[in-house]
Amino acid sequence: MWGAIFQYGIDGSISSPGWRRGSVTPRVTTIPCPGCQHDIDLGERGISMLFRNFTLESIVERYRQAARAAVAIMCNICKPPNQQEATKSCMDCKASYCNECFKLHHPWGTPKAQHEYVGPTMNFRPKVLMCPEHEMEKVNMYCEVCRRPVCHLCKLGGSHANHKVTSMSSAYKILKEKLAKSIHYLISKEDQVRTQITELDRLINQTEENGQLAERQANEHFERLFETLQERKTEMLTSIEQSRNRRIDQLKGQVEEYRGMLENSGLVGYAQEVLKETDQSCFVQTAKQLHVRIQKATESLKTFHPSADPSFDEFVLDTSKEETLLKEMCFGGVPDPPLIDLSHSKVYNEASICWRLPDDHLPTDHHVLEYRKLGGPSQSPSLEGSEDSGVWRATDRVYGSSAGVHDLEPDSLYAFRVRSCRNSMFSPYSPEVSFHTPPAPIFSFLFSDKCGFSPERLILNSRRDTVESVAGMAVLLAAERVQTGSYIGLDYIIGDTGISQGRHYWAFKVEPYSYMVKVGVASDTKLIEWFHNPRDTSSPRYDHDSGHDSGSEDACYELSQPFTLITLGMGKLIIPKASSSSSVSNANVSSGDPGNRVLPMPQHLGICLDYDAHRVYFYDANTMRCLFERQVDCSGTMFPAFGLMGSGKVQLEEFITAKKLTF
């Protein structure tokens, strides 16, 4: 679909966007998927690696023709002013013709008479679908692994070399039958669909009505709150105004009183005039009362006190509690519980727990992750009754959608749950999920590009946490059976850090399309000797592997190799023949070899090496179920080891590489 979206213009013109050499426009290498919104890597060639969706182009063109039926498509050969309306379009010539011009340019008895023609159109698509990787090759097969058309070069020496393919006709028949059945089912359920549409329309109307009712009720509640606040506001402002006026009047009266003490004004001026009185009886009569007033003014002057306090502290409001109550008012109800995302959560010595919220959730303030220990190590059952067992412990507030938990005990079962908080209201807890920690501390390492590494056959990324084996043309030509993708050599790679004591655990992912991958441990004392041997039948480039995936070679050939391995490939895990020192989990017996056992390949595989006990264990890293264990010769330093044959890819888990990549 992306091909049509990028290559079919809005105006109906066909373009080849891609990237031109020397262009100042940056090459597009990633695009967001319209379904899952994740970025999709388009590789080196960008958009040009996408198929054009000719079917979608044809559908769009049919609708556009119907929309512009009133606008005729003119003949490309006729010249104005006698240009005629086109009646046919030639898909080979990529031009439109009127009847006369078509006969003139496609005469009978000539090769052009065999050209394919359709009704008038502006969409001239190629007659065949070409491979975007090999531009000169037609697609003639369908890869069932990648679910896309491929050409024979893709199968012979490209990225689909070891993928299961089928003929285009067979894929066409199968997919057309599936699509027809699906369409028939939908058509047969037309009445049910119409009923559900009616129900959805009813829900839309009900949602609209309930939403409007909720808005009216919310407005009423807030209006009542506003009215109450307005009443209290009016009362307080009135009190403040009355107090202010009273104090101002008192202070103004005191000002007038003090102004009377000034010379030639008020009380002092009156006293000065009384002193001019010469009649003794009149003076005594007036001076007695005046002297009392003068004494009061003198005392007031010595002990000055304003008649009113200018401070309005009694009217200062502390509304912090009320503001807190308003902020804590919950109008959205109890938040919905989150859901722990098992696909993105990982638990080793440390846990990284991720969760997601419902699509229509309201914003939350924070989350709280809780965990508890359900059971201790199987070899120490007494630990299950300890104080910490069964007690829920909470992390600090989490403001994102993931949290980490540190210092988990090895070989223990832990339960996790999370809840959200909004406006001081907590959601219900999410459903509990349990994870089993590894049986030993995490062993951190990266792939080594030194010992035995074959750069012409193995691709190691820059972080050295992913190794990929690509089956090229030279490899296929050297194969004993090209049609079945059988190879004669394994390419080995080991970790860059060794183990000389204790118990250690590491985990990794093997891509499902991998033809054959062998994983396990290797001894350095044997590696040094083995990698310096001449390239004969005991060389790692000429492994005694029959080319099939029975896994029997892992048991019989181990004595002469430094490796202890089990085999994965084509979606299966092959357990070697069990010996007296091996224990194997329940599995189906392989029909090819009654001594071997076949399991579905785990999404992630874990390995635990007990150096002191001379044993190696293989685990399903998702469930921590032991799949296989056996004795191993720990005579020197032991290294994680991997062998790849044909197309394959191994990626170390992030927890395994985290410490190494920080330095």
Automatic annotation (TrEMBL):
One of its GO terms (biological process) is acrosome reaction. Residues 425-660 form the B30.2/SPRY domain. This is E3 ubiquitin-protein ligase trim36. Residues 275-332 form the COS domain. Residues 334-440 form the Fibronectin type-III domain. The gene is TRIM36_1. SUPFAM superfamilies: B-box zinc-binding domain, Concanavalin A-like lectins/glucanases, Fibronectin type III. Belongs to the TRIM/RBCC family. One of its GO terms (molecular function) is zinc ion binding. Keywords: Coiled coil, Cytoplasm, Cytoskeleton, Metal-binding, Repeat, Zinc, Zinc-finger. Residues 126-168 form the B box-type domain. Its main location: cytoplasm. It is found in: Cytoplasm, Cytoskeleton.
